[in-house]
Structures are given as C-alpha cells and as structure tokens.
Amino acid sequence: MNEILDAASLLLILVGAALCLSAAIGLLRFRDVPTRLHAATKPQVLGFLLICVAIALSLRSWPVVAFLVVVVLIQLATAPLAAHMVGRQAYRNGTIDERSLYVDELAESRETPPGAGG
C-alpha cells in the first residue's frame, strides 16, 4: 500500500509541476492582461493544490495535512482576489482592449465617476 501511495504522490507532483510550468510559460507568452491573469491563476492554483495533496499523501501525518489545508484555503482565497484587482486596475488604466470584451459591466462606472453623485 505504501508503494501505491508513493507512486500516486509522485504522479501528482509531476502533474502539478507541469501545470505550474504551463502557468509560467503562459505568463511569458500571452500578450494581454486577461489571458495572463488566466494563466497566472487557474493552472497555477490547480498545480499548487495537486502538489499539496501529493505532500499530504507522501508524509501521511495529520499535523501536516492540517497545515496544508490552511495553506490551500489561503491560496484559494487570495489568487482570485488578486487577479480581480489586477484586472480591474488594467481596465481602469485602459490597457485592456475593450473591443475584445463580450460584456462590459464596468462601462457605466467609466461614464460617471463613483464619487460624483450622479
């Protein structure tokens, strides 16, 4: 049984590392902010999650699992929030090609400044 768990953890680490590598390559290769945000959040978080599961399988210790649960929850909370803030700031700076947006929910906020009262 130990060999099976070790093989599973090795496979999870390899898949997680490949996802993290694809996220890094995506950050370098993609040209605009939305696609870079996609590369920075989705495959990176999934790769990190797989690596944490592999560590938990490999070490087989409850204190380690408890620590990894907290680490994963923090990662799942901060990565989407950071991507949202970067995307919103890129939209406000005008670095996003507005013609490529299917729905522009922030168009009204550009017409009337938030503190203008109208």
UniProtKB/TrEMBL annotation:
One Pfam family it belongs to: PhaG_MnhG_YufB
Top-level taxonomic group: Bacteria
InterPro entries reported for this sequence: PhaG_MnhG_YufB
Transmembrane feature ranges: 6-28, 40-59, 65-83
The keyword Repressor appears for this protein: no
Keyword line: Membrane, Transmembrane, Transmembrane helix
Similarity section: Belongs to the CPA3 antiporters (TC 2.A.63) subunit G family.
PANTHER family assigned to the protein according to its UniProt record, in alphabetical order: ANTIPORTER SUBUNIT MNHG2-RELATED (PTHR34703)
Protein name: Monovalent cation/H(+) antiporter subunit G
Record organism: Microbacterium candidum
